[in-house]
Amino acid sequence: MRIAIDYSAAVNQRAGIGRLVRNQVLALADLDHVNDYRLVYARPNRGSVPQFPRARNFERREVGLRERWLTILWHRARVPLPADWFSGPVDVYHCPDFVLPPLRHARGILTVHDLAFLMRPDCADDRLRAYLEEVVPRSVRRADFVIADSENTRNDLVVLLGVHPASVAVVPGGVEARFAHVTDAEELSRARHKLGVGDAPFVLAIGVIEPRKNLNRLMDAFHDLKQRASVPADLKLVLAGGNGWLYDGIFEHHAASPIREDILLPGFVPDQLLPAIYSAAEVLAFPSLYEGFGLPLLEAMACGTPVVASRASCLPELAEGAALLIDPTNVDALTDALELAITDPELRAQLIEQGRQRAAEYSWRRAATALLDVYRRVALA
Predict the structure, then answer these.
(1) Helix, strand, coil % (nearest 5) of the chain?
(2) What letter does residue 243 receive in the DSSP assignment?
(3) Among 61, 216, 350, 353, whose Cα sits 20 to 30 Å from the Cα of 78?
(4) Which domain holds residue 33?
């Protein structure tokens, strides 16, 4: 097979979808030495340091335009310039970041990571939501096959966008081998220094700062938690991540909190520090209103950190009994769950062991195997 993959997200996005696409492609390169791959990508943004597989059957094809201009050409101006003109003749063309450009001869595969813009429209910027409401359904209709990150998103695609169940499959994310419990004192000290917590215990939330992450309720729950004698008096809350959409209200909520000195916002944290950051945390709080997958949940589990998560969207599917699940709109329930995860030794031990077992079920090789199966199925159709 000749397979083209739009690698622009992997080149230009440090976290989130960028990291997912990078890991899927790197795992494909380890798995498949037979088929020919062409990684097509927009001109890298200033400061980006792209990571490419070294396998001989993977070829790079840089397009001489920035990603923004390709978006304007293909999805706003709707210029009928086929993407497989850049890749050369291929059997399948996979776009792993929500939108699929015009194709000449190749069969198109599209990954849709979530439908948050439809499920939680209140959590998206108006212009972004209007753009996604137009281009994602159009891309889904154009695609020969659709990939989702979870069964929950697969079901959303079938119900909300009318995708035929036989034309959509789940290719989950995975957990890199480097995510394991860190005991090295120097690594843990660097992680704590980056977060600004010193030697204090802390609750960790990690992800982009935006309303969908439900951080205002988490700050309220943390305020109530700090009033309880069972938790350490110097307990901190760390909200780690870069700014996403509509973040102003979150910073305003933080500024108004009477315990704002104990709530830290260190911004984006370097990828290489993540295992130590997870390992240093008392608990990961992941109370999102909607997620397409939720890598932090599995990565924290792999590092031996108990998890308190929302029972919304795909998170129960991922956790499968290895986390404390709560209604994301119930601040009292979130407070109680955090208290238990921090103070109950038997429960902590149970969550840690079950979490490690659950995270071990998700590998990037498993993801690459599922992705290769989709490529074969679509190419032979």
Answers:
(1) 45, 15, 35
(2) B
(3) 61
(4) 2-174+363-380
